[in-house]
Amino acid sequence: MKRVNIMQGKIIEVSNLTKIYDKKIKAVDDISFDVFEGEIFGFLGPNGAGKTTAINVLTTVLKPTKGGAKVCGFDVVNQQTEVRKSIGVVPQELTADEDLTGLENILLCADLYGVPKAEAKKRANDLLELVELSDAAKRRVETYSGGMRRRLELAAGLINRPKLLFLDEPTLGLDVQTRAAIWKYIRSLKEEYKMTLFVTTHYLEEADHLCDRIAIIDHGKIVKLDTPNALKDSIGGDIMEIAVEGDPQPLIDTLKKMPTVREVSCKEDGTCRIKVKSGEQTAPEIINVVINNGLKLKRIWLSEPTLDEVYLEYTGRSIRQEEGSSEAAFKQRLAMRRSRR
Ligand SMILES: Nc1ncnc2c1ncn2[C@@H]1O[C@H](COP(=O)(O)OP(=O)(O)O)[C@@H](O)[C@H]1O
Ligand SMILES: [Mg+2]
């Protein structure tokens, strides 16, 4: 199901975009897609998939090797200044200066964009309020938590009132609660300012909850692009879960041999997740198998496929296996930043 109301003008048009590093590393491999005005568009993929490279080309930081893109109607190679004026960018690497206050950092950004001083001050205060940092505005960024830094970056990315905002892994390394808070700001930007957002992430929940459409990116290629619901529908079939009492192993062996069963995975507590072609058809068969194996059925229920299953279906592996510890990632980045100074 496509959401027709968001399909207004194209704000990003990417055609056959390729980026090769050092003549050998194909980070982005011949991708084409459009982003429509007013939508939250997600690039979902594991580390190394090519998300940051794609953003860097779209924001004119890198030149494409082949193909091209138009952003806000401007060419990313021949009209770089125009592109930069129309967009905001919140990069993956935190860029705020830790020795300056939050307010000073935003004013610095305003200066970079040529926003007049009086206007900059007003906008900075408004933005700090938007991301709930007014109270911390005059504190040095060094004293900020990870979530506060991200919110500051978000505010800084908005100083030139862009129509289109690029966010590269906006919640990387943040805890679940802080991630949810960032999502709230991102949604409010879309709703209140009618802004278009291009977000990259390797968090499935983030893509699922936040994005109107998602491109699944793997090894530099777009393997699938659609709304989260359509992606889930596209893998077809139902997920059945059953809870049994007793040793489920013989049951698993039997289930795996059934032609209507695609996949079975069981947990130690005796709950099994069964991917079937049709829940309605297979449920009675499964109940029979449980009884024939002398097991007691405690519970049976149908559930929706998750985006993880979608990801698995199209890339052949689970994104969860590749998610490193977010805490570790944050610490590593902080260490990297400190070492550069
Ligand atoms: N400056 C660079 N020089 C060479 N290779 C790079 C550079 N930046 C990224 N890569 C490589 O390109 C691929 C895509 O990286 P990246 O775009 O950062 O992916 P993601 O943001 O999805 O994690 C990776 O294999 C990465 O190692
Ligand atoms: Mg990246």
Summarize the structure.
With about 350 residues, this protein is of the alpha/beta class. The chain has twelve helices and 14 strands. The protein starts with 9 loop residues before the first strand and ends with a helix.
What does this structure look like?
The protein has 341 residues and is of the alpha/beta class. The protein has two domains: 4-232, 3-Layer(aba) Sandwich (Rossmann fold); 237-304, Alpha-Beta Plaits (2-Layer Sandwich). The chain is built from twelve helices and 14 strands. The strands form three sheets. The chain has a six-stranded mixed β-sheet with strand order 6-7-8-3-9-10, with helices on both faces. The chain has a four-stranded antiparallel β-sheet with strand order 2-1-4-5, covered by helices on one side. Strands 12-13-11-14 form a four-stranded antiparallel β-sheet, covered by helices on one side. Helix 3 packs across helix 4 and helix 3 packs parallel to helix 5 (146-156). The longest helix has 18 residues, at 176-193. Bound molecules: adenosine-5'-diphosphate and magnesium ion.
Notable traits:
341 residues, alpha/beta, Rossmann fold, Alpha-Beta Plaits, four-stranded antiparallel beta sheet, 12 helices, binds adenosine-5'-diphosphate, binds magnesium ion
Which helices and strands appear, and what pairs or packs with what?
Elements: E1 10-21, E2 25-36, E3 40-44, H1 51-58, E4 66-71, E5 74-75, H2 80-86, E6 87-90, H3 102-112, H4 117-130, H5 146-156, E7 164-168, H6 176-193, E8 196-201, H7 204-210, E9 213-218, E10 221-226, H8 228-234, E11 238-245, H9 249-257, E12 261-266, E13 271-276, H10 279-292, E14 296-303, H11 307-315, H12 326-340
Parallel strand pairs: 3-8, 3-9, 6-7, 7-8
Antiparallel strand pairs: 1-2, 1-4, 4-5, 9-10, 11-13, 11-14, 12-13
Magnesium ion is lined by residues 51-52, 92, 168-169.
